[in-house]
Amino acid sequence: MKKEERQQQILNMLNASGQITVNEIMDALSVSDMTVRRDLTDLSKRNLLIRTHGGAQRIVASEGYERSHVEKKSLHEDEKRKIASLTASYINDGETIFLGPGTTLEKMAYCLMDKKIRVVTNSLPVFEILNQSTSVDLILAGGEYRSITGAFVGSVALCALENMRFSKAFISVNGIAQGSVFTYSEAEGEIQKKALNLAMDKYLLADSSKFNAFDFYEFYKVSDFDHIITDSGIDQNTVTELKKYCDIQICE
What we know:
Blueprint (H helix, E strand, L loop, with lengths): L2 H15 L1 E3 H8 L3 H13 L4 E3 L2 E3 L11 H5 L3 H12 L7 E4 L3 H8 L7 E4 L2 H7 L6 E4 L3 E3 L4 E3 H8 L4 E7 L2 E3 L2 E4 L2 H12 L1 E7 L11 E5 L5 E5 L4 H7 L4 E5 L1
Parallel strand pairs: 4-5, 4-9, 5-6, 9-12, 12-14, 14-15
Antiparallel strand pairs: 1-3, 2-3, 7-8, 10-11, 11-13
Helix pairs in contact: 5-6, 6-7, 8-9
């Protein structure tokens, strides 16, 4: 069997099951361990699968469009609530933090209402939630408004952050794969990158559906985060891989 045919067979098997082991490929294609591992490495470099310990996982592609803020609010609500609650417990009175856009971070905002902290955000929904608090010192980084996500972006928003520093920055994403994090909008990705670079501690909040998934714009590396917080739906192989890069907390 030629290399191209063999690799296509591997992708077909992976698409059917979602994940596959080296031994399963060896048995199905009657090839050596070394041949399988070379094929998996090659396919991984071409972003056609994700290598795991002892095998591979299928990559979930972007849907090709950006979900609206309303659509996202109804997805994985319980997981987002648990992630938000756990993450909020890591914030102490007196801190200055950054909260990016996203429905998980909106749920987190509700958990911060009684804390004595300063919050900087480029998310209008997060701002509107925390604006009801009497203890939070709140700053909105304004700029060009993206109504589909409720985020302010662009050069004005980037300049607003320029001289700020944060003890912690909290970001959510649309996809995490191959050691990188992704979002749909380049403009949103750039302001999230800026905020992360200005923070001492960098937190990535993502429900388990976001792992092994791509989107349009890659804006940060997993290895540059200090903490990842997700839910118990995450695959154990993915957890093992992520632990090579940073601390990972899983909500039960």
